[in-house]
């Protein structure tokens, strides 16, 4: 008998692996949170599978997603990234990633960590969804709208409410595995 998964994770081994091992697992490491925020921004308008296939190239291109290193990128680095066929070469998203690194560092300085800042939008604990199907999972919520608005106020880009909700799902701030998914039971426990 095969495991039941969220419908979006079927059909591709890379999606299955990401779903089974990462998606919805509470994440509290600032560098990993930065990586997910940047990748979710690059995903806007594209499929997550496209981003996953390029993830290793993104890690190389963006200095392992170390925020201080990315914040130090200058025009020559942006030009290098715009010519890198391994990543999504969208000029606006590349420039936003550098700007987001700068804003990320400011949040860390102000709040002690991005983790403390981000998780405050869910009162420090995952919000557990109870959707039976993917169609019942929202694209955005009041929390993602508030988080998005605050990120924008702080100078972040490519952080609309839908992108932020995807970030929240990916990092376990929101646990949206459908109730029939084998990961639901493991991650919905208090």
Question: How would you describe this structure to a colleague?
Answer:
The protein is mainly α. It has one domain (7-188): Endonuclease III, domain 1 (Orthogonal Bundle), CATH 1.10.340.30. Helices cover 55% and strands 2% of the residues. The chain contains eleven helices and two strands. The chain has helices spanning 13-21, 30-43, 48-53, 55-61, 67-71, 75-82, 91-111, 114-119, 142-153, 161-170, 182-188, and strands at 127-128, 174-175. The radius of gyration is 16 Å and the shape is globular. The chain starts with 12 loop residues before the first helix and ends with a helix.
Summarize the structure.
With 190 residues, this protein is an all-alpha fold. It has 11 helices and 2 strands. Helices cover 55% and strands 2% of the residues.
Helical content band = 55-70%
- Going across the major beta sheet, what is the strand order? 1-2
* CATH superfamily membership: Hypothetical protein, domain 2
SS-derived structural category:
mainly alpha
Mind summarizing the main beta sheet? 2 strands, parallel
**Average predicted local confidence, pLDDT:** 96
What is the domain total for the residues?
Answer: 1
Q: How much of the residues is beta strand, in percent? A: under 5%
| CATH class call | Mainly Alpha
H/E element order: HHHHHHHHEHHEH
Please tally the β strands and state the result.
Answer: 2
Treating each run of at least 4 consecutive H or I residues as one helix, how many helices? 11
The radius of gyration is: 16 Å
Query: Which regions are unreliable across 5 or more consecutive residues at pLDDT < 50?
Result: none
């Amino acid at each position: 008998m095969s495991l039941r998964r969220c419908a979006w994770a079927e059909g591709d081994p890379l999606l299955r692996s990401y779903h089974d091992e990462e998606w919805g697992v509470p994440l509290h490491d600032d560098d990993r949170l930065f990586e997910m925020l940047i990748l979710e921004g690059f995903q806007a308008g594209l499929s997550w599978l496209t981003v996953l296939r390029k993830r290793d190239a993104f890690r190389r291109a963006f200095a392992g997603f170390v925020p201080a290193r990315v914040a130090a990128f200058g025009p020559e680095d942006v030009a290098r990234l715009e010519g890198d066929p391994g990543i999504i070469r969208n000029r606006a998203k590349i420039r936003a990633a550098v700007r987001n690194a700068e804003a990320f560092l400011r949040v860390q300085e102000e709040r002690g960590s991005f983790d403390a800042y981000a998780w405050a939008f869910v009162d420090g604990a995952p919000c557990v969804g109870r959707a039976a199907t993917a169609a019942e999972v929202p694209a955005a919520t009041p929390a993602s709208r508030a988080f998005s608005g605050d990120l924008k106020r702080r100078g972040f880009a490519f952080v609309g409410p839908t992108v932020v909700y995807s970030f929240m799902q990916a990092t376990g701030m929101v646990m949206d595995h459908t109730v029939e998914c084998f990961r639901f039971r493991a991650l919905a426990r208090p």
